[in-house]
Automatic annotation (TrEMBL):
Domain Gfo/Idh/MocA-like oxidoreductase N-terminal as annotated: residue spans: 6-122
Protein name stated in the entry: Gfo/Idh/MocA family oxidoreductase
Pfam family, one: GFO_IDH_MocA
Domain of life: Bacteria
Gene Ontology MF, one: nucleotide binding
Length: 370
């Protein structure tokens, strides 16, 4: 690999702290700066990881000419504004999901990437999880045969999360289930139709005007005979945390386990077999391979909610960092790039709009024209 070093700044140090040691050890990164509004938290993290450059003001960070790339891990309502500001300040951007909260914000980010020539990548964990990499390898080897159908679900109880999550429309945070159904066939969504079902507590409904306990969406893939289905719930639905996908092929099919930590199932014809999903650390530089199995939030007294529920995100974090950095040093597009991230994100935004309109078919914007 090239020895080029990218100077990275991380913004938001809750979930964001997980990525600090990965950048510190990656051969193409310099973990240059951190940014957090709470100065006590900023100094706590800075001291723990030995990072000297610290900012409480995001605007001041963007003025730092030493920074090549910004990794954004702030609350979702800040993603679009902060991504746009970073791109316009001449910085590459990696941003946790979702890309934005409106179709227009997604369009603005795509346009900003084209205007600035900078790179944008949405850091979608599921499409770099060991489960996805396992199925992707099977597909690329021809073991699945022709893809016939893909479905995914993300069911989660958000009680106890920060207040802005309360009453959030389920599909407004759908990238974890939309991502894999589009990433495996490397497809774009063409249009969606979604139904809402059930009803959440009345005190939650008023916050976003969204009544549904569950939203389920069908996605038509562009220039393909494939369609996909995704299901999402956030409140008042009894279910163990589930962040899953199933892939049906003409030769073999993959089904996610119904109970977390149990084995997944591969069907060959009509014959099922439980399988152990291998780790894919071998795809990474040796310096960061250990992070597929352990990271900052491992000890019992140091647990982030996304880890308690998300089972470590399938070992995806070092793969995400590696994809972002290698895309920069190789001067290529990452996956997902800005247009792909916009398509993934807008599936969820427009799916909720469809559900509020009784399942009306809604086309996805063509971001290639943005």
């Amino acid at each position: 690999m090239t020895q080029q070093k990218i100077k990275v700044a991380i913004v938001g140090l809750g979930f964001g702290a997980e990525f600090i040691p990965i950048y510190q050890k990656h051969p193409n990164a310099i973990m240059y700066a951190i940014c957090q509004r709470n100065e006590d938290k900023l100094n706590e993290i800075g001291d723990a990881f030995g990072i000297e450059k610290r900012y409480t003001d995001y605007a001041e960070l963007l003025k730092d000419s030493e920074v090549d790339a910004i990794h954004i891990n702030t609350p979702i309502q800040s993603h679009a504004e902060q991504s746009l500001a970073a791109l316009r300040a001449g910085k590459h951007v990696a941003c946790t999901v979702p890309m934005a909260t409106t179709v227009e914000e997604c369009r603005q980010i795509v346009e900003a990437v084209k205007e600035t020539g900078k790179t944008y990548m949405m850091m979608e964990t599921v499409i770099y999880s060991r489960e996805f990499l396992f199925v992707k390898e099977m597909y690329e080897k021809g073991e699945l045969g022709k893809l016939q159908f893909i479905r995914a679900s993300h069911q989660q109880e958000m009680a106890g999360w920060p207040g802005y999550w309360e009453g959030l429309p389920p599909m407004h945070y759908a990238t974890h289930c939309v991502g894999p159904v589009l990433a495996l066939p490397k497809a774009q969504a063409e249009y969606v139709s979604c139904f809402g079902s059930g009803r959440i507590d009345e005190n939650l409904i008023s916050k976003y005007g969204s009544p549904f306990a569950i939203e389920s969406c069908h996605i038509k893939l562009k220039d393909s005979d494939l369609s996909a289905e995704v299901t999402r719930s956030l409140f008042n639905t009894a279910r163990q945390y589930r962040e899953s996908f199933d892939v049906y092929g003409s030769k073999k099919s993959f089904e996610w386990t119904l109970v977390e930590h149990e084995d997944n199932v591969i069907h060959t014809g009509e014959t099922p077999e439980k399988v152990k999903t291998p780790d894919y650390a071998h795809l990474l530089p040796q310096e960061i391979q250990s992070f597929t199995q352990q990271g900052v939030y491992d000890s019992g007294d140091n647990q982030h909610l996304s880890f308690i529920q998300g089972s470590g995100h399938g070992g995806s974090h070092p793969h995400l960092v590696h994809e972002f950095l290698t895309a920069l040093v190789e001067n290529r597009e990452p996956y997902p790039n800005a247009q792909q991230s916009a398509n993934i994100t807008c599936v969820g935004i427009l799916a909720h709009e469809s559900a509020m309109k009784g399942g009306e078919i809604i086309p996805l914007p063509d971001f290639t024209l943005a």
